[in-house]
Amino acid sequence: MLLTDGCVCSILQICIYLLKGRAVAQSGSALRWGCRGREFKSRRPDQFFFPLMNNKPKIGWIGLGVMGSSMAKNLLNTGYEVSVFTRTHSKAEQVLEHGARWCESLSEVAREADIVCLMVGYPEDVEGVVMGEQGILNDMNRDSLLIDFTTSSPELAERIAKCAKAKKIHAIDAPVSGGDVGAEGRTLAIMCGGPLKAFQKADPILRSLGDKIQYFGEAGSGQRVKMSNQILIASTMVGMVESMIYAERSGLNVRKVIELIGQGAAGCWSINQLGPRIIGEDWMPGFYIKHFLKDMRIALEDSSRMGLKMEGVELAYRFYSLANAEKWENDGTQALMKIIRKLNTE
């Protein structure tokens, strides 16, 4: 079929309009278009047109903290239409400016999405959001998918999967590791548990968020892999800060020390990513102390059910509890150095 000159002209005009809209939106001067109230706020002109041609599933996202915000933005960047809800509206502003749509309730997110993603703080939050009186399983569509990225209880993941199955909804537990750096750079490690069919349905979403993705089996498996991860990190953090305070007290150039040992047998993510932050007295959270304490509690409880005694984790838990007592729970996990310094000056 041949295009007339008029058709070609119209297509070119639309393309120019979209490109101009994108340029203006990216300059930050046109982030609010105001059509139909909140529904189209913060949407670029191209985002009015492209969803009509978008055959990707619609995403609902709940929880926009340090990790959740970056993950939701990455889904937007890879062409997904994302609707969001979080308890504190101000936490959604960056994601809304990036093109997400605001929902007024959990129910609205659940009804409109093909896939609902969850990234909240604590197991009790997960349970309330998913299975509470106004939980999303009450409103999600049949054959839709729930992906819980929260680090939570393996036992709760098993209960969610059972409840979801009864409602003909797919569900996987998919906790992540990699901190704020991994969330921003789409380099998260994602540990998955649940029915294989649900994992396969989630796979394209997961590949928009991470580059190390593994399926481990039945519901709760992803959470147990994450507990293995946190158990390793717990003892590693203690060793890292003690290594650094030893070098500091010895009068060594600590930056040079970590640059060298970070490339040898002692090299690890913690020393290479968090070591420089400690040197710069940067305690901003890539991962909150309060959330790490929660993770260690889950690990210790699940280990106890297996008859395991985890003394390394118990030691790290005691140290981080001291940080919590000092009101440093909203600092990043690297603030363990402040506790170790305090213990060595008393």
What can you tell me about this protein's structure?
This protein is of the alpha/beta class. It has 2 domains: 54-219, 3-Layer(aba) Sandwich (Rossmann fold), CATH 3.40.50.720; 224-343, Orthogonal Bundle (N-(1-d-carboxylethyl)-l-norvaline Dehydrogenase, domain 2), CATH 1.10.1040.10. It is built from 15 helices and 9 strands. It has helices spanning 5-27, 46-49, 66-77, 93-97, 106-112, 123-131, 154-166, 179-185, 196-206, 221-249, 254-261, 269-279, 289-305, 311-325, 336-343; strands at residues 59-62, 82-85, 101-102, 115-118, 145-148, 170-173, 176-177, 188-192, 210-215. Strand 1 (59-62), helix 3 (66-77) and strand 2 (82-85) form a beta-alpha-beta unit. Helix 3 packs parallel to helix 8 (179-185) and helix 10 packs across helix 14.
Question: Would you identify the regions where 5 or more consecutive residues have pLDDT less than 50?
Answer: 16-44
Give the end-to-end Cα distance, rounded to a whole number of Å.
Answer: 84 Å
Q: How can the largest sheet be summarized?
A: 6 strands, parallel
On the 0 to 100 scale, the average pLDDT is: 88
Number of domains: 2
Total DSSP helices: 15
Percent helix, as a range, is 40-55%
How many β strands by DSSP?
Answer: 9
**Spatial arrangement of strands, main beta sheet:** 3-2-1-4-5-6
At CATH level 3, the topology of the largest domain is: Rossmann fold
- Overall structural class, as computed from helix and strand content, comes to alpha/beta
